[in-house]
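Following up on my earlier message about S-adenosylmethionine. Here are the inputs again, as you asked, copied directly from the submission form:
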Amino acid sequence: MGGRRIPLLKRLAIEVLGEDLAKRVWSRVEFIGDIAVIKVPFSLSPKDLKPLAEALLREVPRVKSVWAALPGVGDEYRVRNYMHLAGDVRSETIYKEHGCLFKIDIAKVFLTTKLSYEHMRVAKLVKEGEVVTNMFAGVGTFSIIIARYSKPRAVHSIDINPAAYQYMVDNALLNRVEGIVLPYLGDAARVIDEKLVGTSDRVLMPLPDLALSYLPYAVKALRCRGVIHVYLHVKPSVNEDPRTVAEKALYSKCVEYGLSCRTAYSRVVRMVGPRKYQVVLDTYCSKVG
Ligand SMILES: C[S@@+](CC[C@H](N)C(=O)[O-])C[C@H]1O[C@@H](n2cnc3c(N)ncnc32)[C@H](O)[C@@H]1O
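Thanks, got it. Here's what our run produced:
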């Protein structure tokens, strides 16, 4: 009595797959609207998880469709590979976060529920009348939450994935912020060069793979100075603070590019792998010269 509660997915796995197989199943299930996503470990085939998916459907009535997220990082649009396991064969749903609605298709666009705190943290920093550029906006999560909870003048929101762009357009309408959230389809560097140089007080870079190489474009989007939220993945060695590793990586890029930047705040957003962390750096940058 009084022991630790077994997570839902683990309990169901023990019931339907048996103790041995259950040991290899992740305990965490991600609920995105009425879709549940189970991560497939390298040691199992998605088909092994079908009885677990059926049990999840029975146990959680609001779940209508269960998908397996296959191992790997996903494509150029950061979309993971999925396999249908149980329930409706449908990958489109409506995901709710902070009272905003996001229509998405998990098989066509990136979405994680793990950035929810970060979306609101950044939204609260935005001051009335600010112009924001979101370089990697996805279906508009950061941008729409900023528009709903703060009073920006505009949130320029870029994505290169045509499906994400279309959902962003739809979601801006769905949340009645279509005059504030301004979607652009294309590569962030090109869109900034062609349309957004010197426009913004704040820039978001929520794509760790491109954050350092696209830093000069983020600075180009700023007026004279402003804040850039830089998201990085780092793999610190034992006893190293992930935030320090991220700050060092950013500073060496700033030196290389001749940028004048100072990080005012940093936090570990989440773990993304074994000893691998996503870190955000809220960095003040000025245009030199
Ligand atoms: C990690 S996701 C964005 C997450 C989103 N901001 C959120 O909070 O849910 C990264 C996005 O960047 C987009 N992307 C990838 N390369 C890009 C590029 N060169 N220019 C603009 N968008 C890009 C992908 O299509 C994807 O939607």
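One observation from looking it over: The chain is about 30% helix and 30% strand. Hope that helps, and feel free to reply on this thread.
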